[in-house]
Amino acid sequence: MITTTGLSKVYRSRGRAVTALDGVDLHVREGEVYGVIGQSGAGKSSLIRCINLLERPTAGTVTVDGQDLTALAGRGPRAGRELRQARSRIGMVFQHFNLLSTRTVQDNVELPLEILGISGKERSRKALGLLDLVGLADKAKSYPAQLSGGQKQRVGIARALAGDPKVLLSDEATSALDPETTRSILQLLRDLNRQLGLTVLLITHEMDVVKSVCDSAALMDSGRVVESGTVSELLATPGSELAAALFPVGGEATGDDRTVVDVTFHGEAATRPVVSQLSRTYNIDISILGAAIDTVGGLQIGRMRIELPGRYEDNVVPIGFLREQGLQIDVVDAAQGPALLKEGAK
Q: What is the 3-state secondary structure (H, E, C) of 161-185?
């Protein structure tokens, strides 16, 4: 549904060139919730603004629903009309709501329909239906100042849906909200994704957002995509930065001649007493240095950092036992040479 190829964006200010995007390739499948995560300055907001061409890319292409939007930019009146039509099928939800304070909630939702030339009666019918969809049917005649932050964002989402978009872009839509309200807005986005078949692209700096609702994710740093894939694939990828950030376990070796490994549990393996079975089978004492468990995409996933006594070569068989149980094993620290550590992390 969304593809960017070699996407670059360079801003020029006072004779300086600042690269916000550096050859970004992104592939978002139809009907999925895709999260792009990174620290401030990573290029996330520039990416989402280039996808709907609020910012024109310096280089590269943006294709949405099979249409190359970059081919329409700056190509004359006809191309301009086609670009506006293409944009009308892309909804946008902003961090700070961007509601018009002098308009009622219903009028705010009707605004894009008004711009599209839809009749007043049809605008009213559509707006009231969308407000009902986001749980604000009783707030149609209220003004933004009378709403809570979460309610304002629901109005913003209803407004973004007014043009019946196939794609919904969310630029840090929950970062100004408290945790409970954030959960309700994320659940609303997931519900809309399922009910309407929407493809949702979320920009966020919060790992909990990815963990709560995303099917796939990409990690950005310094204008580049560092890694990307489905959340389940990333969690099963050795050395994944996103996986480590989603399930931080911490903990360091308590002494010399110790081997520390991270064990990632998926599906049925998350409910089996694998560590205690390992301890009994090989008669070894295992220290648990840290653990985290959560539900991602309806599946229980956990990560545990354990310490095994002895050097890595002493623990090849126990580590092999864990892998045979279908667990992802990453060797974090071991009393051994670099070559052995690299081999053990495969």
A: CCCCCCEEEEECCCCCCCHHHHHHH
Mean of all residue pLDDT scores within the chain: 86
Q: How far is the C-alpha of 146 from the C-alpha of 161, rounded, in Å?
A: 22
Q: Using a CB cutoff of 8 Å and minimum separation of 24, what contacts does 225-228 make?
A: 225/24, 225/25, 225/26, 228/26, 228/27
The least confident of 76-80, 130-134, 211-215, 228-232 is 76-80
Signed CA dihedral, 42, 46, 50, 56: sign only: negative
**Planar angle of CA 54, 59, 63, nearest 5 degrees:** 60
Report helix, strand or coil for 20. Answer: strand
The per-residue pLDDT for 342 is 39
Q: What percentage of the chain carries pLDDT values higher than 90?
A: 50
What is the C-alpha separation between 274 and 328, in angstroms, rounded?
13
Task: Please name the residue ranges forming H helices in 215-337.
Answer: 231-235, 241-246, 274-282, 316-324
End-to-end Cα spacing for the chain: 34
So what's the pLDDT on residue 242?
A: 84
pTM of the model: 0.83
CA distances from residue 44 to 35, 38, 39, 122, 148 in whole angstroms, order as listed: 10, 7, 9, 36, 27
